[in-house]
């Protein structure tokens, strides 16, 4: 059985290869690449683990950050969500939380970078 982190990294790396919206890759926790030509990439991380609504099983929440220079193309966030929900090896489901957008500037430039944060969860069965 594949771990959620391994499956998510693999899924995001495959999505990054798309010619429709090419991305530099997928990184866990933070992007450590110093020489990226464009700031178009994914970062994902665990957010928290807590009891599920049935109070027996646990669920772990994950965040996927879509980082893109200028703006994220319209419809791309939905594609990322659909791709992650359909990934093989580890079931993820988008939460009802809104997708949040933040903005920053690319180092030493006037280039705006848009960052969308998607929250998903993975139900974990109690042993």
Keywords:
single chain; 127 residues; elongated; alpha+beta; STM4215-like
Give a structural overview:
The chain has helices at 4-16, 76-85; strands at 26-28, 41-51, 58-69, 93-94, 100-105, 112-124. It is α+β, with helices and mostly antiparallel strands and 127 residues long. It has a single domain (4-124), classed as STM4215-like (2-Layer Sandwich), CATH 3.30.2000. Strands 1, 2, 3, 4, 5 and 6 form a six-stranded mixed sheet that branches. Strand 2 and strand 3 (58-69) form a beta hairpin. It is elongated. The two termini are 15 Å apart. The model has no long low-confidence stretch (mean pLDDT 92).
State the secondary-structure class: alpha+beta
Shape label: elongated
Number of helices: 2
> Using DSSP, what is the number of strands?
6
Query: What is the number of independent domains?
Result: 1
CATH architecture: 2-Layer Sandwich
Weakly predicted, low-confidence segments: none
**Helix-strand sequence:** HEEEHEEE
Q: Which CATH first-tier class would you pick?
A: Alpha Beta
Question: What is the topological layout?
Answer:
Blueprint: H1 4-16, E1 26-28, E2 41-51, E3 58-69, H2 76-85, E4 93-94, E5 100-105, E6 112-124
Parallel strand pairs: 1-2
Antiparallel strand pairs: 2-3, 3-6, 4-6, 5-6
Short note summarizing the structure:
The protein is 18% helix and 37% strand. It contains two helices and six strands. Strands 1, 2, 3, 4, 5 and 6 form a six-stranded mixed beta sheet that branches.
């Amino acid at each position: 059985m594949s771990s959620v982190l391994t499956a998510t990294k693999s899924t995001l790396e495959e999505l990054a290869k798309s010619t429709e919206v090419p991305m530099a890759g997928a990184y866990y926790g933070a992007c450590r690449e110093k020489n990226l030509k464009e700031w178009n990439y994914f970062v994902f991380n665990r957010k928290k683990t807590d009891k599920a609504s049935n109070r027996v099983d646990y669920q772990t929440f994950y965040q996927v950050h879509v980082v893109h220079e200028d703006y994220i193309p319209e419809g791309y966030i939905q594609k990322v969500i659909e791709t992650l929900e359909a990934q093989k090896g580890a079931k993820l489901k988008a939460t009802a939380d809104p997708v949040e957008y933040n903005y920053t500037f690319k180092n030493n430039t006037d280039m705006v970078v848009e960052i969308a944060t998607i929250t998903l969860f993975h139900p974990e069965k109690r042993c």
